[in-house]
């Protein structure tokens, strides 16, 4: 067998296995250690061992290893990680490759895409170090077995932590730092911290932006290529000027205006990316585009890119952030050792772990819960009826999803037509900010009926408008700006969830369910049956489905 192991260290660390050209399993370490983002420079042995157990292999069968990180000079740490790895497993040397951060992103998205050739654009908070700078955005060209860098933009290395006032509050920012270059994604992170959110909470900024209005018109912004300038002071200085004119203190101004600040940031980001990607298409005349890096978890921007740019096809990896790095590192190692012969096989997005009936039953019995086991047909009807009775259902089925979005294999689902369901979920289960939207999951064939989509939205990465005639019918998944973050389910990829949606349509007239991640605020999405049961028991979720088991809280 040809087996490549991919590893990522630092935040969102995890592991991936490719066997004979097929991506067989991928796991983010946070799903196992239950620490959100699982940030550490240590190799995620827990993830690696979980994959070995799941695939019934051991280290002696692994052909090659790829590893990536962020904020390092990769060749300088390669030997460090190589020594650590081989000491831990006490095994002979295996071909070992350290993959630069942006290159791992590029491999992850291109070799998961359906394209034989494509432009590949990477934009994230920051990649690896290049001398005294850090990767900001990078453009590659991919063709079959080769990925070639075309251009890159570098940024200054952040001073201390990004959330510190030296990076976010204009008067605290020394003059030389004000002139520092910053990546598009780090600019989003910078202002996310300014308005009071923390690491990894840019999605909150995106949700809040819909409640505000941009202070400035960015419609004339025109980034021609990766030579543009974006400084630490940009936008931050303008916000400070507005605060001074308001007569309010800094903290009062931020508290009152953070929805408008978020809207300004969102507007800037959209125009910056769209102008840049349009100009790159004109320059390179390539009809395919691959996008990766954390900024492409921004659903509003993604949909506008697809609608306004001139690419024939756009592919965004569901694990666009650093939880896709292990996948890219595995691709890289596999290709370095075995070369390119044919396209990789990958069954996106469900390439996580799954659990046997025995594992499920053991977890249920350990908590002395009442359960019944049903066929798919029976279960779809029962769950649909509970949804229509406004019950909250925890759903844990099959292989877990890759990426941060729950796609109905580790989800909480509910009635999209109940106008109070958003508040009910926030009060009873999620315990999160009221401005954050919940998403719709819809059958593939009906997505264009309800939502103003240009292309299919499989991975909850696009936020189109809800069509006007359906907004009143889908109140709990229609955001304040009339958009919705759509996931479309096909019968081929997930016959059970597709069947469930058709049963719901019989009862309420639309093949839509409200879908949110199966976790509470501050915790990772559940991974194992035990995780699902623990979250079920500590929240007011009404019923739980694990596999084909229908579980309630009281023992009959």
Brief overview:
With 556 residues, the chain is of the alpha/beta class. 37% of the residues lie in helices and 18% in strands.
Notes on the protein architecture:
The protein is of the alpha/beta class. The chain contains 19 helices and 19 strands. It has an 8-stranded mixed sheet, sandwiched between helices. Strands 6, 7, 8, 9, 10 and 11 form a 6-stranded mixed sheet that branches. A hairpin with a 2-residue loop joins strand 18 (543-546) and strand 19 (549-552).
Question: Topology of this protein?
Answer:
Elements: E1 3-8, E2 14-19, E3 22-28, H1 30-33, H2 45-55, E4 64-68, H3 74-89, E5 96-98, H4 101-110, E6 117-123, E7 129-130, E8 133-143, E9 146-156, H5 165-168, H6 175-178, H7 184-194, H8 202-209, H9 236-246, H10 250-284, E10 288-292, H11 299-308, E11 313-316, H12 325-338, H13 357-366, E12 370-373, H14 376-388, E13 393-396, E14 410-414, H15 421-430, E15 439-443, H16 447-450, H17 468-471, E16 487-489, H18 495-508, E17 512-517, H19 529-538, E18 543-546, E19 549-552
Parallel strand pairs: 1-4, 4-5, 6-10, 10-11, 13-18, 15-16
Antiparallel strand pairs: 1-2, 2-3, 6-8, 7-8, 8-9, 12-19, 13-14, 14-17, 15-17, 18-19
Helix pairs in contact: 4-12, 7-10, 8-10, 9-10, 10-11, 14-18
């Amino acid at each position: 067998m040809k087996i490549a192991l991919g590893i990522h260290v630092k935040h969102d660390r995890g592991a991936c296995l490719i066997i004979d050209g097929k991506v067989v399993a991928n796991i983010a370490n946070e799903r196992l250690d239950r620490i959100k983002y699982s940030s550490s420079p240590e190799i995620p042995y827990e993830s690696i061992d979980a994959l070995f157990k799941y695939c019934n292999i051991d280290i002696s069968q692994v052909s090659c290893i790829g590893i990536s990180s962020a904020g390092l000079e990769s060749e300088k740490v390669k030997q460090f990680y190589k020594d650590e790895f081989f000491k831990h497993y006490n095994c002979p040397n295996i071909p070992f490759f350290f993959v630069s951060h942006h290159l791992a992103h590029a491999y992850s998205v291109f070799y998961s895409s359906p394209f034989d050739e494509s432009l590949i654009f990477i934009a994230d908070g920051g990649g690896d170090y290049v001398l005294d700078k850090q990767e900001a955005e990078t453009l590659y060209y991919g063709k079959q077995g080769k990925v070639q860098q075309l251009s890159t933009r570098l940024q200054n290395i952040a001073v201390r932590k990004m959330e510190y006032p030296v990076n976010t509050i204009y008067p605290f920012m020394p003059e030389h730092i004000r002139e520092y270059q910053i990546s598009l994604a780090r600019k989003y992170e910078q202002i996310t911290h300014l308005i009071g959110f923390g690491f990894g909470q840019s999605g909150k900024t995106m949700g809040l932006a819909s409640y505000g209005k941009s202070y400035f018109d960015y419609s004339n912004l025109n980034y021609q290529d990766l030579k543009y300038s974006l400084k630490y002071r940009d936008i931050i200085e303008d916000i400070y000027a507005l605060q001074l004119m308001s007569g309010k203190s800094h903290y009062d101004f931020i508290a009152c205006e953070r929805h408008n600040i978020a809207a300004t940031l969102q507007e800037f980001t959209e125009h910056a990316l769209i102008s840049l990607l349009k100009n790159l298409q004109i320059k390179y005349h390539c009809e395919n585009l691959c996008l990766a890096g954390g900024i492409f978890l921004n659903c509003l921007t993604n949909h506008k890119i697809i609608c306004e740019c001139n690419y024939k096809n756009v592919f965004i990896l569901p694990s666009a952030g650093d939880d896709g790095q292990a996948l890219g590192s595995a691709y890289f190692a596999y290709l370095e050792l075995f070369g390119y012969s044919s396209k990789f096989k990958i069954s996106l997005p469900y390439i996580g772990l799954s659990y046997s009936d025995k594992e499920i039953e053991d977890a249920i019995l350990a908590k002395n819960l009442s359960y019944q086991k049903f066929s798919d047909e029976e279960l779809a009807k029962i769950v649909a009826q509970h949804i229509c009775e406004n019950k909250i259902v925890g759903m844990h089925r099959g292989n877990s999803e890759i990426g941060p979005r729950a796609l109905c294999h580790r989800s909480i689902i509910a009635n999209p037509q109940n106008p109070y369901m958003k508040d009910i979920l926030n009060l009873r289960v999620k315990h999160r900010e009221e401005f954050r939207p919940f998403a719709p999951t819809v059958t593939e064939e009906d997505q264009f009926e309800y939502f103003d989509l240009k292309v299919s939205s499989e991975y909850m990465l696009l936020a189109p408008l809800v069509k006007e005639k359906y907004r009143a019918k889908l109140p709990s998944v229609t955001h304040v700006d009339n958009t919705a973050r759509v996931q479309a389910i096909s019968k081929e990829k997930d016959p059970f969830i597709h069947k469930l949606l058709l049963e719901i349509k019989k009862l309420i007239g639309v093949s839509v369910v409200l879908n949110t991640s199966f976790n509470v605020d501050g915790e990772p999405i559940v991974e194992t049956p035990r995780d699902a049961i623990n979250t079920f028991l500590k929240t007011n979720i009404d019923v739980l489905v694990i596999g084909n088991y229908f579980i309630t809280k009281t023992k009959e």
